[in-house]
Amino acid sequence: MEKPSSARNSLMDLNDASDEFFDVPEPSEFDSFIDNSPFSQGHSQLKIPSPAGIVKKLQDLAINKKGYMDLQEVGMDENTTFFYGATLQKDPNLTLPCSWATADPSTFLIRGDNYLQDQQKVKAKDTMMQMIGADWISSDKREDDLGGRLGGLVQEFAAKGGPEFFFIVNMQAPGSAMYSLALYYMLKTPLEDHPLLHSFVNGDDAYRNSRFKLIPHISKGSWIVKQSVGKKACLVGQALVVRYTRGKNYLELDIDVGSSTVARGVTNLVLGYLNNLVIEMAFLIQANTVEELPELLLGTCRLNYLDATKSVKER
Questions:
Q1: Which end of the chain has fewer CB atoms surrounding its CB within 10 Å, N or C?
Q2: How far is CA 146 from each of CA 35, 150, 302, 309, rounded to the nearest angstrom?
Q3: pTM of the model
Q4: Domain ranges in the chain?
């Protein structure tokens, strides 16, 4: 698949205009950042550079931060046998490091019933799907189509012939190792009962790229990372190469983070602070017509203090 052509130089350009990009920092944290920021040295007022410049400056700050680990320098565990869909532990109590849970849907803003008239977003109330598993894998190559692999969670259900449908988001960050963070969502009701999702699952790649949205949120961690990641809804397929695999009982999105220089830079920054972050995300299909509104989240996730050295190594 060819990378979508675009004149944009930042993921921020793809976000909904009604969202806010920067998290509002605590006053003391903001003052500390300004005092030590290379943006403000020698100036009485803070100068805001271009989005690409912000990413470069933040990367430089991360590199100088004690304990920073570049993606290409991170080691990996030697564990080689695992069950796809269960390599990252679940912790609904939010106490274990390097674990996953679901995030509160109300954290995220989505298009309401009257969005086409008032451009107003509302807090999400629920999700369409249930998150049932996650993978945190490292490899020397891309690990695509995890849902189609024998012995995995999705194929276990397929073998039983049940009605469940799975939606897998597999985010891949390249380096000397390829890191894959795969999130598994299950739909228990018939796919046909959800017209917008049904159209997405059975649509072509151009349609899918124009509709799939991710909303990020760094709920705990450095303000530097919060500023870089933001919290705006982004049409992923307009910024990154996404490979879609349609299986009998699933659709998998393999998202190549390395296909964008800006996204790759932000990812390297996040990895430098990874075990000090709580990352929340929501996924949805953008609603563009009155009939499709209001939007409904497909699912959410909360990633608690991930550790790149604890990723499971695929051989």
A1: C
A2: 46, 9, 21, 21
A3: 0.76
A4: 11-34+49-119+128-231+240-258+286-313
